[in-house]
Specification:
By secondary structure, this protein is mostly beta strands. Helix content is 0%, strand content 32%. The mean pLDDT is 78.
Length: 50
Protein backbone atom coordinates (compact mmCIF):
# COMPACT_ATOMS: atom_id res chain seq x y z
CA UNK A 1 0.00 0.00 0.00
CA UNK A 2 1.25 3.49 -0.80
CA UNK A 3 0.53 6.46 1.44
CA UNK A 4 0.76 9.99 0.06
CA UNK A 5 2.52 12.25 2.56
CA UNK A 6 1.31 15.27 0.56
CA UNK A 7 -2.33 14.31 1.16
CA UNK A 8 -1.95 12.90 4.70
CA UNK A 9 -2.41 15.15 7.75
CA UNK A 10 -2.13 14.70 11.52
CA UNK A 11 -4.80 15.72 14.05
CA UNK A 12 -4.73 14.91 17.79
CA UNK A 13 -7.91 14.75 19.85
CA UNK A 14 -6.90 14.82 23.52
CA UNK A 15 -7.93 16.54 26.74
CA UNK A 16 -4.30 17.33 27.49
CA UNK A 17 -2.02 18.62 24.78
CA UNK A 18 -0.22 15.67 23.25
CA UNK A 19 2.93 16.28 21.25
CA UNK A 20 3.03 13.87 18.38
CA UNK A 21 5.38 13.54 15.47
CA UNK A 22 4.26 11.09 12.83
CA UNK A 23 6.63 10.37 9.98
CA UNK A 24 6.21 8.37 6.79
CA UNK A 25 9.28 7.73 4.63
CA UNK A 26 11.25 10.22 6.76
CA UNK A 27 8.67 12.99 6.09
CA UNK A 28 6.76 14.55 9.00
CA UNK A 29 3.00 14.80 8.60
CA UNK A 30 1.52 18.28 8.87
CA UNK A 31 -0.52 18.97 12.04
CA UNK A 32 -3.99 20.45 11.46
CA UNK A 33 -6.87 21.61 13.67
CA UNK A 34 -9.61 20.68 11.19
CA UNK A 35 -10.12 18.57 8.09
CA UNK A 36 -12.82 17.64 5.56
CA UNK A 37 -13.99 14.03 5.29
CA UNK A 38 -16.88 12.78 3.17
CA UNK A 39 -18.40 16.27 2.96
CA UNK A 40 -18.17 16.98 6.71
CA UNK A 41 -15.72 19.26 8.51
CA UNK A 42 -14.09 17.75 11.60
CA UNK A 43 -12.72 20.35 14.02
CA UNK A 44 -10.32 19.88 16.93
CA UNK A 45 -11.93 21.06 20.18
CA UNK A 46 -9.66 21.72 23.16
CA UNK A 47 -12.40 22.55 25.66
CA UNK A 48 -14.78 20.41 27.68
CA UNK A 49 -18.53 21.11 27.44
CA UNK A 50 -20.43 20.72 30.71
Amino acid sequence: MEVSTEKSKNIVNSLNYARTVITINDEKLVKVTSFHYLGATCVLSVGVNK
